[in-house]
Amino acid sequence: MMGLSPKTASPMTWIGATFAVGAIGGWISAGAPAFYEGLELPAFAPPAVLFPVVWTVLYLLMGIAAYLAAASDGGRETKILALVFYWSQLAVQLLWCGVFFRLGQPTAAFWLGVLLVLLAAATAQWFAQLDRRAYLLMLPYLAWLLFAVLLTFLLAKQVR
């Protein structure tokens, strides 16, 4: 299932695979702190130095959530759908990084952010059907995404 067998993959495998996606995002976002600090940010925007810390925690929680969902006793079809949504939202997250940081297109990034929130919410909902803990571990990520989409929206308004 997506290259990771739910019954044989360890929690560290799921966490490691999730962190690998994060590492790709970090590579795509190289130079992001300078780019971010150069924007006209709202007063409530966090400093750039906070982002690596937050993302490290979020990737850890998401990796654990994916493991719990995959290792649950839930049905095979439910697991497949949950994990398709999981990997899909991570792929859109990478796309968002490229559109925002590499291409400097906050309006397009805003719409990708909306899609990302929807995919992450769907992932959390599918995870809830498999393991309540997996669902709960996705909530901080969803909260952070909503905050990021708000920030992106405000930045996109400046470009118009």
Considering the chains and any ligands shown, give keywords for the structure.
6 helices, Ferritin, single chain, mainly alpha, 160 residues, elongated
Strand content: under 5%
Total domain count: 1
User: Mind telling me the CATH class?
Assistant: Mainly Alpha
In whole angstroms, how far apart are the ends? 43 Å
CATH topology: Ferritin
CATH superfamily label:
TspO/MBR protein
**Helical amount:** over 70%
Supply the number of helical segments: 6
> What profile does the largest beta sheet have?
none
Query: Helix/strand-derived class?
Result: mainly alpha
- Strand segment tally: 0
- List segments where confidence is low: pLDDT < 50 over at least 5 consecutive residues: none
Q: Give the C-alpha Rg.
A: 16 Å
pLDDT averaged residue by residue = 91
CATH architecture: Up-down Bundle
Please give a quick description of this structure.
The chain is 79% helix and 0% strand. The protein is mostly helical and 160 residues long. Helix 1 runs parallel beside helix 4, helix 3 runs antiparallel to helix 6 and helix 5 packs antiparallel against helix 6.
